[in-house]
Request: fold
Amino acid sequence: MTLEEIPEVTALSIDRGHAEFMVLLHGGLLFFKGHFPNEPILPGVAQIHWAMQWGRRYLDIERDFVGLEQIKFHMPAKPGDQLYVALDWDAEKSLLSFRYTLAKRVVSSGRIRMR
Reply:
């Protein structure tokens, strides 16, 4: 098994300032390695990293990271989970909001301040 840095991502919709994705968390993701070996979970830092990466790629955000606001991790995401991710970019406020859900239950949410 090779370890990969990014999950399998399917864009569901991309519009001005808003994007939705389906993300399949396969067990070979690098982020699962060593993060609770007996019961791996997706680290929050990976979820934030992906939100920023996808925001830059799909919403054309060309600003730098400044900080995090109202970050909440409600439940763990595990290998095999199929997550839905919603990103919203408010250019006026320089805020990228994200929300990861699993079967309509919130996994994580928050805002990333950019400048």
User: Anything to note?
Assistant: The two ends are 39 Å apart (CA to CA). The CA atoms of residues 93 and 113 lie 8 Å apart.
